[in-house]
Design a protein that fits this description.
The complex is a heterotrimer of chains A (278), B (332) and C (322). With 332 residues, chain B is of the alpha/beta class. Chain B is 33% helix and 24% strand. Chain C is mostly helical. Chain C folds into 2 domains: 122 residues, no CATH class; 181 residues, MetI-like fold, CATH 1.10.3720.10. Classes of the chains: A mainly alpha (278), B alpha/beta (332), C mainly alpha (322).
Amino acid sequence: MKSNRLTRNPIAMTGLAIIGLYLLVILVSTFWLPFDPVEMDIDHLLEGPSLATGHLFGTDEFGRDILSRIMKGTSISLIISIAATALGAVIGTTMGTWAGYLGGRWDHWLMRVADVMFSFPSLLLAIFVMAILGEKTYNVIIAIGIVYIPQFARISRGAILTIKSSEFIKAARSNGASSTFILRKHLLPNILVPLIVQVSLSLSVAILLESSLSFLGLGVQPPAPSWGNMLSSARKVMVLAPWTAIYPGLAIVFLVLGFNLLGDGLRDILDPRLRNVR
Amino acid sequence: MSEESILRVEGLVTQFSTDRGLVKAVDGISFDLHRGETLGIVGESGSGKSVTNLSILRLVQSPPGNIAAGKVLFQGQDLLQASEEEVRLLRGKNISMIFQDPLTSLNPVLKVSMQIAEAIQLHHGLGRKPAKAKAVEMMKLIGIPDAERRADDYPHQFSGGMRQRIMIAMALSCNPDILIADEPTTALDVTIQAQILELIKSLSAKDKTAVILITHDLGVVAGMCDTVCVMYAGRIVERAPVDELFYDPKHPYTRGLLDSIPSVDLSGPDRLYSIPGAPPNLIDLPDACPFAPRCSRVMEVCTKATPPETVLDTATSRSVRCWLHTKENQNA
Amino acid sequence: MGKYIATRLLSLIPVLFGVSLIVFFLVRLIPGSALEMYMGTQVEATPEQMIELQRIFGEDKPVVVLYTEWLGRILKGDFGHSLRTGRAVLPDILSRLPLSLELTVIALFLALLIGIPQGILSSLRKNPVSDVLNRIAGLLGLSLPQFWLASLMVLAFSNTQGWIPMGNYIKFTDDPLRNLRMMLLPSLSIGIGLSAVIMRYTRNSMLEVLQMDYIRTAKAKGLAKRIVIIRHALKNAILPVITVAGFNTGYLLGGAIVIEEVFALPGMGRLALYAIYQRDYPVIQAIVLVIATLFVLVNLLTDIIYSLVDPRIRLDNGARHS
């Protein structure tokens, strides 16, 4: 039933199509890339996009093919985003669910900690964590994951609290159902709706955060290509070679837009009441 | 009732387009309202009584709503043909409305005096200060204690009954010809209800304001109205002077409503009677009496064709829409 | 009102305390002591000098004592000294703070200026085509990386040197007009994303409010459409927008860090980045602390503005309705 409504929602389907396209790029890039994304080619520095040379998106200041680097960067960016979101979602949801379910002192302290975490703008928190952990690719996952923990904790806790007071839980409890049973059978399915939407939106923000960190030189380290560090190195040459800045940026925009479209469409499909979440 | 009617509604049809089809919320309503008369419109929720009255002032949300047919003649002018601007200037000046829930019907972020005064400012062309003075005067008139001081308060600072008084002050501030009160007491405590009704009654009597009182509560109708229209599924199923309706209800639905009034006499056998079933779905109504599935006196013809309106008394314009009372069946 | 502000101010104390805990202890997690890092760039020291240095770096005391001492100094306005330059941290931050704040404020202003009218207009012209277009425009705004927008703007305006100055930073107090022209592009690249968010919120909020009973009441009074919208709908519809704008000021502050780098503006963000590159932890700590405090204060300010617009909040003691 839900999948049916999904296929009939043009917004969500457009989002899915865009994401699917990127997944296809990843699949292709594991077997084949037009050029080596890392090796320099001093004969073809800063060449414009051209069919004749085969450099469809042009080359960068080391003569590397931009399309190949974007393709390679797709898997790096997506893996970081997915892993970071998963990290934040698993830890945050676990904490939020238990806090909401147990209530009392646990709940109180956990939410105070979340309040404190919310006092840091996301990008600042990610930058701070990177500064402490050091600029390694896997640290980007941790940094973004940490940003997401309080967000997921708050959403899952909120969902738990609304459901906890509702009638069917009281009914289940009066029928002698155990806590774990109630949690698994009743609560989790009901927090899934807001969580799915949050996951989709978090993926989009994760890509933006990762590319910002990499742009600042705090994320994925060269020569490994990431969209953010490609844009960073493009800054020095973009006036001469605008293509070095345009295509990696477009790659970011479309993937992020894909996740945003999916998240927005899912929100319509799953729960119209959530429309104003963001 | 010899006076000419101030408002005449003829064959009004209002529809809503929904995902599942066209809903005929109002399906061919006609009635007359005379100066100084109080007309009750009674029915369950969803019977179309509110939509009827929103249609009169063309306040039905469009889309999805759409007034598909009929005439609304105010002092001879058809409001459904008039320009938006003409209708707008009648609103609040000649025809005002009071709504069910005074909390949601008052703007939470504006001072009450300002909400009363803005209509005065608009329709009487008064400046801000005199309009506010008139608003405070209205607040006093409708019995808000300490009106000068409370004029600058916001709706949430008043009790439910006081809020409804403010709504009434707002509606009557321009001495309208017609006051439409849509379930004015439903959201209020029982003790407050009588006060509000009394207020509407005395103020309308004073200025000979005609009132259309929409309610689901026949008890309210008994004390307030001259004439009553009973609505069911978007149609008027019975129309009668109030006394006749109570002593001699013709339509089985009206009878059911009367039986549903909790009796003070607790010895009766069915003191908590309610009509079985639920109102019909208004999408694709079949050609049949819509009440037939719930009717205790259903006949074969009821499920075959829609009953026509039968006029029982032309002098009082008493009529009923039921196969039990058509000419043929009466003769039989 | 005064009481409301006072209660809200008091409630900030535990939050800021928590912020200080995080800022202090996260830095402690770094492997190797501050002294080792400091020594890493210096020549050898004699054992006597080492003991003296350990005392200066506070490595002879338990961590809790160090935290209390650190917090005490911060409260007195002593944010420590840079490991690299040896200069006091606070004056450096304070001299750069105005630029970052100006950037954020202009960005917020532009976002509201673009977003709110757009949102109102699109809520009034509601039809399936414009609905979808508005939605996509809003989502696209959310999807644009600020630093990329900034790069594109630099690219697009790189040969309009005259009107958009790109050279050395000019203070507002020195030449306000030139300063504002200089800040326009950076602010715009931070603010455009938020303007899309605000447009979306204003629109949704307007559509919701236009369905309310009190709008029907206002129409039933005979008020002109213009007055119904401006006086009755907008004032209610703006409430959630205030919250969103306030909450997203954090996003603007974060954006400022990146954008200052792109436009070579000497603000706090740039200071932070160089501190990070050089592992200058006292500077990093201080900047994070200052930005988080700012953000907390902005949220307080948002709540106060909200309570000014919504009379339902003003009179009860700090509790927020709905």
